[in-house]
Amino acid sequence: MAALVAKRYATALFQAVQESETTDAAAVLQELKGIQQAIHEVPDFARFFASPVVGNREKKQFITELFKEKISQELYHFLMILVDKRREASFEGMVHVFEELTEALENRMEAVAVTAVPMNETAQASMAASLSTLTGREVTLTNQVDASIIGGVMVRMGDRVIDGTVRNRLNLLKEDLTQMIV
């Protein structure tokens, strides 16, 4: 349910930005990420913003004082609607969906390659090129190291996961053997 709410609201904001002649999606995405960063870094702000005890009037006044002159009109009005509809708890998901919509508009995408050891630049560039060919988008690849995967690579792109890890293959083999024994 929360994912559906996040998608609906983020899509509405994205459409409003697309219809605007003065604002672009990339700029609004940066503003959203700035607010998201403030929520992560200032626990009192996060509690205030998400609190069902704090009234809409107080939240709107706070948002007006803090953001009105610093963010686009579309985002400002969007925040006001979030408060009116009591959807503040879905803000993180909305930022994620808005980012995906912006990346699709710009024909780019972010991916994460999880490996047991750090990838060198050549391997990372080669994998990014392969993923770009696969998706038809410009892929920006980052590398995360997780020794528990033993070997191979797991790639996360949006909601897609390509799991070519040794750990995954061992788990599949274990399942196959269990099926044969039973």
TrEMBL record:
It comes from the Bacteria. Keywords: ATP synthesis, Cell membrane, CF(1), Hydrogen ion transport, Ion transport, Membrane, Transport. It is found in: Cell membrane; Membrane. Its main location: membrane. InterPro entries: ATP_synth_OSCP/delta_N_sf (IPR026015), ATPase_OSCP/d_CS (IPR020781), ATPase_OSCP/dsu (IPR000711). It is a peripheral membrane protein. Belongs to the ATPase delta chain family. F(1)F(0) ATP synthase produces ATP from ADP in the presence of a proton or sodium gradient. F-type ATPases consist of two structural domains, F(1) containing the extramembraneous catalytic core and F(0) containing the membrane proton channel, linked together by a central stalk and a peripheral stalk. During catalysis, ATP synthesis in the catalytic domain of F(1) is coupled via a rotary mechanism of the central stalk subunits to proton translocation. This is ATP synthase subunit delta. It comes from Anoxynatronum sibiricum.
